[in-house]
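Q: what does this look like with aspartic acid bound?
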Amino acid sequence: MRKVVKFGGSSLADAGQFRKVEAIVKADESRLYVVPSAPGRRFDGDTKVTDLLIEAYRIAVEGGDLHAHLQTIRARYDEIITGLGLSLNLDEEFDGIEHQLTEKPYLDFAASRGEYLNGRIMAEFLGFEFVDPYEVIFFNEEGDLNSYKTEKMLQKRLTRTGHAVIPGFYGQGKDGRVKTFSRGGSDVTGSVVAGAMKVDIYENWTDVSGFLVADPRIVKDPVSIHTITYRELRELSYMGAAVLHEEAIFPVRSKGIPINIRNTNRPDDEGTWIVESTARKPGYTITGIAGKKGFCAVLITKALMNSEIGFGRKVLQAFEEENISFEHMPSGIDTMTIVVHESEFIDHEQNVVSRIHRYTQPDSIEIESDLALIAVVGRGMRSMRGTAARIFSALAHARVNIRMIDQGSSELNIIIGVANEDFETAIRAVYDIFVETQL
Ligand code: ASP
């Protein structure tokens, strides 16, 4: 058995957290490749090292006191080094960073140093080899991962080592400069290493015991999800449930490697398994609930719309020409509704409306704003009768008016539109009916 273990920023925020990571890594010989993030927040209101480094770049460009700012960052690392009783000295590293940022500041280099330095400390602490992603992770001209070259180089480099530490978040751009993934990208590095080395499991250690069925800011102490498929995860993340970087799925998915989300602070919790497919039934018919506010619906009515060929295309053309992407499109016999993000739509609304009028001569166009969308997601819904009925009666009991319903043909999700102000109540009601009453 071989595993990649990625640790997020909160798992590495100070020396105490490093010790927890050490215990986790050392508890299992198969935890071969360790991918650390940069130190995250130690307490509410604290600043992540990556943000401090981005600020360093800004200071370098605007000509502020770069040296003093870098010393603040250095203090965070020195605190970790001393706390762990290591003798590592970062003089040279910080001189190099200051020199680079003074001479030729560039953002990706600055941002990437958080992971680089944490990787150096982690390698020293664990007694593992340090592998700089600059030498094994490559981007192409367009700025996307060059998977082919990256896989080859990772395989070449890592088959020669036993245990290794490979910092997350960055690699080498086509121009030979350091380049980072988008924010939260250490998840992607972990996945890329797991995929290239064809390990058995990609463990992603964070500060929650996996995915929760609903947002804990809305539902008190929600239960966690034991197993979720990649497709369910995609539906939930799209609707705002964020634990894992979106691009972290692809490198492992194509190789059939499961991702296990774990909690560094509660290492005995099993966490959540993200898998391609499973025979395991979700605990509660539904796998998860997520949602977002701030949508609006454009309702177009025209008698005999159903028999007018090309009607839908012309409506969508009006949105396309205004460069607006649509989220959902529930339709009736003589009605068609296009749901869009209010913030994207608002400046273009009259242009869109007049285009629709010109292209399709509808009977009426109505715009409803302040709409929230809630996705109830679950592979178990396909084989269960009455799921929709339970959702709707729960919402009726909670006195929430449903303004739109859209069930994807995959039967993997049901999307419900409610007023923004009913958003939290609706999520709680759906959660309660499936989880609290455990039917
Ligand atoms: N440290 C980077 C960030 O804050 C990458 C990561 O943590 O995954 O975005």
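The two ends are 38 Å apart (CA to CA). The longest strand covers residues 288-301.
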